[in-house]
């Protein structure tokens, strides 16, 4: 998968972080969802690398990235790890696209490192639960972790991947979604579910002055359209792009539409 953009590895403190890279120019960072990895961004690496330096990371515990030491991390832990990774890659500032769980990381990055982010795209954003560090996982997150422990990564993907896609998703889109979900590593997935529980997207973005675009589809069973529209409505100055009747992996279902929505936004001056 993604042989045109093979994984690279960079040292971030004592940990290794893997990523895929394409192109040169202004930095554009892509943060994947909870059931995915950098391989999900194949269409964006190919297209947006024409005029950006595109970095698609593997979150800690995903791909070949080492997991964080904290097994119950907060979004801040991922955000600071991302900042250190950008330091290691020689990137001072970047535009950031966060998909689903990745939107929580992106929001925490914007909160903790506001001078390092230019524009922010929240793609099918998860909003988090704002739970305390010692609180039990919400039932939805706990059920996902139980499925992983019972079925294993490939079994989890067989059960869940196709359900995340829209009604018109092509077979190759479902296959991509299933393959990347089947590469989940248990330690990374468990930690990411704790991030999802502790995260609070709207609190992290409250009062920040930066351009924000929210993008989602009308057939997403994971982050429903109404919730995504509500996120945009609650963020002053944010706009909303309706990607049509697509499911959660819109970047793969309608890549041309998705990429054009990104390009239009990234052309704006801050």
Number of helix segments? 10
Give the strand tally. Answer: 8
Which range best describes the helical content: under 10%, 10-25%, 25-40%, 40-55%, 55-70% or over 70%?
40-55%
- Percent strand: 15-25%
Task: Name the CATH superfamily classification.
Answer: Alpha/Beta hydrolase fold, catalytic domain
Coarse morphology: globular
Integer average pLDDT: 96
Please state the structural category.
alpha/beta
Unreliable segments of 5+ consecutive residues? none
Widest sheet: strand ordering: 1-2-4-3-5-6-7-8
Biggest sheet descriptor: 8 strands, mixed
Distance linking N and C termini: 35 Å
Query: Architecture in CATH?
Result: 3-Layer(aba) Sandwich
Q: Sketch the topology as an H/E string, one letter per element.
A: EEEHEHEHEHHHHEHEHH
Radius of gyration: 17 Å
Pfam family, one: Abhydrolase_1
Keywords: Hydrolase
GO molecular function, one term: 3-oxoadipate enol-lactonase activity
EC number: 3.1.1.24
